[in-house]
Amino acid sequence: MSRPLIERTLRRQVERLGNIKVRGGCRVLNIVSESHVHAASGIHYQTADGSLKTLESDLIVDASGNGSLTVEFLKATDRKPPAETSIRVNTRYASALFERAHIWNDYKGVFTFPDAPEESCGGLILPAENDRHQVVLIGRGNDIPPIDGDEFLSYARELPTLTVYNAIKNAKRLTEIFQIGNIVRALGQPFTIVPLSALATAGLLREQQGDESALFNIMRNLGGSVGTAPLRLTD
Ligand SMILES: Cc1cc2nc3c(=O)[nH]c(=O)nc-3n(C[C@H](O)[C@H](O)[C@H](O)COP(=O)(O)OP(=O)(O)OC[C@H]3O[C@@H](n4cnc5c(N)ncnc54)[C@H](O)[C@@H]3O)c2cc1C
Q1: Which member of 49, 76, 84, 143 has the greatest number of CB atoms within 10 A?
Q2: Atom of ligand 1 nearest to the CA of 26
Q3: Does the beta carbon of 184 sit less than 6 angstroms from any atom of ligand 1?
Q4: What is the DSSP letter of 137?
Q5: Would the pLDDT of 113 be above 50?
Q6: Relative to the CA of 27, which ligand 1 atom is closest?
Q7: Is the peptide bond before 117 cis (omega within 30 degrees of 0)?
Q8: Domain-by-domain residue ranges, the chain?
Q9: What are phi and psi of 37, to 5 degrees?
């Protein structure tokens, strides 16, 4: 199942909850504070038609992704923002959605690993909804997965096995090829996080699973932070 489908389904479920109001098309401009205590007391935001509004709140969760709203709030209230760490990871991948990829032996998914460190090209195929497959080609250093359709296929043909190439050589590509660099976290996550998450929730009562999910994600992120710290030392 693709991420857009999961996100859309979740959004629809949330919109059905009677005590939650979703304000679509709004952009938060900043977190506001009561000047005498410096505590956050609400947000300024802009609606889809451009009007500016304030929403007061006792509790604000900054889920804007990179946390820049919180950092700006800390600066505006004379507090020190948290230290930032940059990690250079020289891995790139290019991905596209294909219709009717024919994976050998009807495997559910494919992961072609390079024989590191000599080799650095890899690829994976994961099933998505409606008989579609997400195909991802990976490279490190000077091996840059291409965004041109023919070159994408040629790159797949040079992988350590032909499984990915054979699966897509006659399949219909449905999207442009999307390329992104310097991301390594995504590699292998579908094969590690999903089974771990399933194991962690197995046997729990339905009403316990909300707490479990929150705990699991916090521990996973903490683990990730600990795991990336040594990477910085090797940079
Ligand atoms: C190309 C790519 C591939 C990835 N692949 C994987 C993967 O395979 N597995 C994995 O686990 N992770 C992957 N990640 C990382 C994953 O997407 C992020 O870790 C995750 O999305 C972070 O979730 P989030 O809710 O914190 O932030 P986001 O998903 O970034 O959500 C933040 C939301 O806040 C909105 N927003 C931002 N600012 C404002 C504002 N001022 N006002 C209103 N709304 C605002 C944004 O529009 C966005 O909708 C990938 C990331 C990228 C970019």
Answers
A1: 143
A2: 43
A3: no
A4: E
A5: yes
A6: 42
A7: yes
A8: 25-84, 91-189
A9: -115, -10
225 lines ligand 1 (CB under 6 A): no
Q: Is residue 180 within 6 Å of ligand 1 at its C-beta?
A: yes
Distance 170 CA to ligand 1 centre (A): 33
Which residue's CA lies nearest to atom 16 of ligand 1?
Answer: 186
* Angstrom distance (rounded) from CA 197 to CA 201: 6
- Residue pLDDT, tens place only, 7-54: 999 999 999 999 999 999 999 999 998 877 788 999 999 999 999 999
- Region label for 65, one of left (φ > 0), alpha (ψ between -120 and 50) or beta (otherwise): left
**Does the pTM exceed 0.70?**
no
The answer regarding whether domain 91-189 maps to CATH 3.30.70.2450 reads yes
Q: What SS3 class is residue 29?
A: strand
pLDDT attached to residue 69: 95
What would the pLDDT profile of 54-76 be if each residue is shown by its tens digit?
999 999 999 998 889 999 999 99
How many angstroms does the Cα of residue 67 sit away from the middle of ligand 1? Answer: 11
